[in-house]
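Try this one yourself first.
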């Protein structure tokens, strides 16, 4: 069962919602897939409508052009579909076939009960509760996940808000196969399916190509509609991405129906946040729309005593959308300052300092900072009923800085610790452009969608570093010590640019129960770098073809097996000592899985098995600093399971489990610093008794198995479980969420390649979040 709920129907009193739905509004909707048209009408009119997705599958709506009430607009769309709109006893609406239903059919109508979340989270989730029907990323279109022959994890705004997630790392705990690695300067990287090559974080399908930390990583959660993780090589989307996959942050878009939300939060370590989200139509025809998001937060310190983080974000967006043109212009300004994260250190004899260290192991002011400005322009121009031109463009100016002292040794017998000072600044300028035509046509009962296009990316950077590396030794880390800040001036050390041009062809073909997705892409990659003290080189030019093929067959309305094969490449920017650039790294994935739609489409289950090969991998040359040597490669095998949706009335769940076995061909006995097993489960329950109306509870477990730290085998962190709890209350325009993370205050250790730096998860923390919708 699918429920379409506009923000108005949830945020206004019943009488106002009724007035909104019966008031005439202007509609300019072309013929389109019926479920898409119904969603547009529901959002614009404030009408609440529930129906089974199987009822409208493969149906096209009639055009809706003119002034109509909400119900009349839907009736216009239903012309010649064999369906009709009927009211339910509860004052909502549903669909049925024109033939009068039996009493048993009427009794069978069920509805998905949404979690207790705010209006904005409901409107932008793109589905019902924790269930998301479509993916906007992998196929470059609004394709149903049930018809996509690939593993795609989607975490929507409903999940994000119910967990009081504050960062992208918090969100990605709900996606199978993703492991976070926190760096000493607060910049996280993400390993997907065992590959640690820093999975790119895209923003609405555009990448901040080449920068150390993507601005999308720091997008505040109030601005996020959903986060998608595309598993395996994704060359058709991200070209030279690592073989594990890519992450795409989908930001909230302008809406025709107006709503406004104020959000506040207060938590442990004197954390404060205030944010505002507003959207609506500017003109009477609702063709010109806006979205405005602003968010600011700060904390006095983190759990380890480093000076607290501070973040500011502002993003205005304008959209013009009519029956043929969809043009969106957006700007985002991000300022962030993150302290050194919580971590512990290993002993030279083996083992490590257990538990949370509650004081800085360097200077309190050590931090990572970033200022970013992003300008985007997206155009979708319908040329005729079959042909559409799409252009997505982005420009990013990004300045990043790091300053501090990090441990480069383990703790000696006398408890001494050696630190290396680090300070740098880098400027990145990035241009991205995606341009393609989309051709849709039918041949009998078969449907074809063809994309032909070109992607272009350009990045220029300039790096400034310390002329020499300061070293400091703390005599006894358990005694009194003082580490001075790194204050030496920076000097220019390197610069470079990279250019990527990719031509691609993609074909999506649907016939009866069969779905096929095939693509081929050719990329040309050019790069040039200048490093102070080295002889300038002529740069590198590398190219590769990346084909892919996926097939899915709908065995029953509830079960669909799929298989896919994907290839990808990563250009080599490293050189061998005294020689040329290394060969590009090649990847190849084979995947098979099953997708299940259960309980009248209120519950989704996805299973997958995969095998990924990676060749031409390189490692640092131990004899010549700054150079690399080629090795064989790596193989990653694993299995994943994801479950999300409504299990029982009022009980929503999102859960995942992943097994990964990553083996390096060149050193099969070398320890891999990733867990074999990861998993999570998060549930929310809405109380149904009148006395507890509006209250709900949530709870979840986040688990990882034990794993090695470093390559020696002397350091191992155990398996661990984090328990999170939440209490919700929602009444008309107000909502409150009291969340408790790591409720039992377990010692939580994170993945690390170095025994000198073992990052840790949060101690027990409390957060109160409130929203007011108007």
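Now uncover the answer:
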């Amino acid at each position: 069962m699918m429920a379409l709920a506009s923000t108005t129907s949830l945020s206004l009193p019943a009488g106002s919602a009724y007035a909104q739905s019966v008031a005439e509004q202007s509609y300019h909707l072309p013929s389109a897939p019926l479920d898409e048209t119904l969603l547009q009408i529901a959002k614009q009119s404030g009408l609440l409508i529930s129906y089974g997705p199987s009822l409208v599958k493969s149906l096209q709506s009639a055009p809706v052009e003119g002034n109509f009430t909400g119900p009349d607009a839907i009736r216009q769309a239903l012309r010649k579909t064999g369906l009709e709109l009927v009211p339910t006893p509860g004052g909502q609406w549903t669909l049925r076939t024109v033939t009068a239903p039996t009493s048993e059919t009427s009794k069978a109508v069920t509805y998905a009960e949404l979690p207790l979340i705010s209006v904005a989270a409901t409107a932008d989730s793109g589905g019902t509760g924790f269930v998301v029907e479509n993916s906007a990323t992998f196929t470059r279109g609004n394709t149903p996940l049930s018809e996509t022959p690939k593993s795609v994890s989607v975490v929507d705004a409903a999940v994000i808000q119910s967990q009081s997630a504050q960062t992208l790392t918090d969100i990605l705990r709900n996606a199978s196969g993703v492991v976070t690695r926190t760096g000493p300067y607060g910049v996280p990287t993400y390993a997907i399916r065992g590959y640690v090559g820093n999975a790119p974080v895209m923003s609405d399908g555009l990448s901040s190509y080449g920068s150390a930390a993507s601005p999308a990583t720091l997008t505040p959660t109030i601005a996020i509609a959903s986060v998608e993780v595309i598993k395996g090589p994704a060359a058709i989307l991200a070209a030279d991405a690592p073989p594990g996959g890519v992450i795409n942050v989908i930001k909230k878009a302008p809406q025709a129906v107006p709503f406004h939300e104020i959000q506040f939060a207060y938590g442990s370590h004197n954390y404060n946040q205030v944010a505002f989200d507003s959207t609506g139509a500017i003109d009477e025809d609702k063709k010109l729309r806006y979205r405005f998001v602003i968010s600011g937060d700060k904390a006095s310190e983190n759990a380890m005593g480093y000076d607290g983080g501070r973040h500011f974000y502002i993003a205005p967006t304008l959209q013009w959308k009519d029956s043929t043109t969809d043009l969106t212009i957006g700007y985002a300004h991000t300022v962030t300052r993150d302290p050194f994260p919580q971590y512990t250190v290993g002993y030279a004899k083996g083992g490590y300092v257990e538990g949370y260290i509650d004081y800085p192991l360097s200077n309190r002011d050590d931090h990572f900072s970033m200022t970013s400005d992003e300008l985007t322009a997206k155009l979708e121009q319908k040329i005729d009923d079959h042909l559409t031109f799409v252009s997505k463009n982005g420009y990013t100016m990004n300045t990043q800085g790091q300053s501090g002292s990090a441990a480069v040794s383990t703790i000696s017998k006398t408890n001494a610790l050696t630190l290396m000072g680090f300070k740098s600044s880098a400027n990145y300028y990035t241009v991205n452009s995606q341009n393609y035509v989309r051709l849709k046509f039918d041949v009998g009962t078969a449907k074809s969608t063809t994309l032909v296009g070109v992607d272009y990316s350009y990045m220029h950077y300039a790096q400034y570093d310390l002329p020499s590396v300061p070293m400091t030794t703390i005599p006894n880390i358990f005694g009194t010590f003082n580490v001075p800040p790194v204050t030496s001036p920076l000097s220019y050390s390197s610069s470079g640019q990279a250019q990527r041009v990719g031509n691609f062809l993609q074909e999506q073909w649907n016939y009866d129960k069969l779905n096929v997705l095939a693509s081929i892409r050719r990329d040309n990659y050019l790069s040039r770098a200048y490093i102070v003290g080295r002889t300038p080189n002529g740069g590198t030019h590398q190219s590769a073809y990346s084909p892919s093929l996926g097939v899915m067959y709908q065995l029953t309305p509830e079960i669909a097996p799929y298989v896919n094969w994907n290839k990808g490449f990563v250009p080599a920017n490293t050189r061998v000592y005294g020689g040329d650039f290394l060969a590009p790294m090649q990847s190849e994935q084979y995947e098979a899985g099953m997708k299940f739609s259960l309980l009248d489409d209120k519950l989704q289950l996805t299973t997958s098995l995969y095998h990924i090969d990676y060749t031409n991998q390189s490692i640092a040359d131990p004899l010549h600093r700054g150079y690399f040597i080629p090795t064989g490669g790596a193989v990653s095998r694993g299995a994943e399971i994801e479950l999300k949706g409504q299990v029982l009335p009022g009980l929503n769940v999102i859960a995942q489990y992943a097994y990964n076995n990553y083996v390096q061909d060149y050193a099969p006995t070398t320890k891999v610093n990733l867990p074999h097993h990861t998993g999570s489960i998060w549930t929310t329950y809405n109380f149904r008794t009148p006395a507890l109306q509006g209250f709900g509870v949530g709870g979840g477990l986040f688990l990882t198995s034990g794993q090695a730290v470093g390559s020696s085998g002397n350091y191992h962190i155990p398996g661990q479980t984090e328990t999170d709890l939440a209490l919700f209350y929602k009444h008309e325009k107000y909502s409150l969420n009291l969340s408790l993370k790591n409720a039992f205050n377990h010692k939580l250790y994170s993945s690390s390649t170095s025994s000198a730096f073992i990052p840790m998860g949060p101690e027990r923390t409390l957060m109160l979040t409130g929203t007011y919708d108007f």
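Discussion: Residues 34-45 form the longest helix (12 residues). Residues 1-20, 100-112 have pLDDT under 50 and may be disordered.
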